Amino acid sequence: QRHSLEIRRRVGFLPAELSLWENQTGEQIIRYMMALRGNVQRAYVHELIERLAFDPSKTMRNYSSGNKRKLGLILALMHQPELLILDEPTNGLDPLMQQTFYQLVREAQARGATIFLSSHILSEVQTICERVAILREGRLHAVERVADLMHVNFKWIKLTFREPVSPSVLAGVPGVSEVSAEGNQLKFRLTGEFDPILRAIRNHYLVDLHTQEPSLEEIFLTFYGNGNVAPVQAHNTVEAIR
């Protein structure tokens, strides 16, 4: 508690839900936090506002969820902290702003910052993180390097046909598992190449094909081979980016 002010100056935090003064404008909030933190470069704050296309003239209650996210990112990054803790940072951001956020994170990494990121988006984790951990029921169950997890290569596939097709059409196809049928659709898990599937369904009229990346938890469970991943011992740590 004695060093709490110094710690806050060295840490940037973005919560999942940003709760600030509803009647204050973005500019008033930013100015207040600049004065509170001290040692904030005004030019860098203006750069963040410009790069995130944030309008600081509106009151907090009039901001959309995306603009609240932008304000939260500005407040977390403005003092160029040594440690960033970001909870679902791209929620509400459009694709262009997501790319801007990734660039800001890479710049923080280049300055030597450590970044802890909470996310359910696999592509985001791949872009930002070096190591990834899974939390289940409030306990740390596993920590792995992202590069190692990416060797677990599978996708969920949904095929839509003009007419119902029996799941048996995919029987014995290499890499296909967990096949289910619903109406004119076949859903399954694919590990490997797609060409054997095209050969198997060549006599059926395909209307649509949809692929979906597995969730991080599915990748973890596949990586460990079952759902009973033992909790990590207390001496292990998580390092997102250094």
UniProtKB/TrEMBL annotation:
Chain ranges of the ATPase AAA-type core domain: 60-122
N-terminal signal peptide: none
GO molecular function, one term: ATP hydrolysis activity
Pfam families: AAA_21
Keywords recorded for this protein, A-Z: ATP-binding, Nucleotide-binding, Transport
Keyword Metal-binding: no
InterPro entries noted in UniProt: ABC_transporter_ATP-binding, ATPase_AAA_core, P-loop_NTPase
Homology family: Belongs to the ABC transporter superfamily.
Stated name of the protein: ATPase AAA-type core domain-containing protein
Species of the source: Candidatus Thermofonsia Clade 1 bacterium
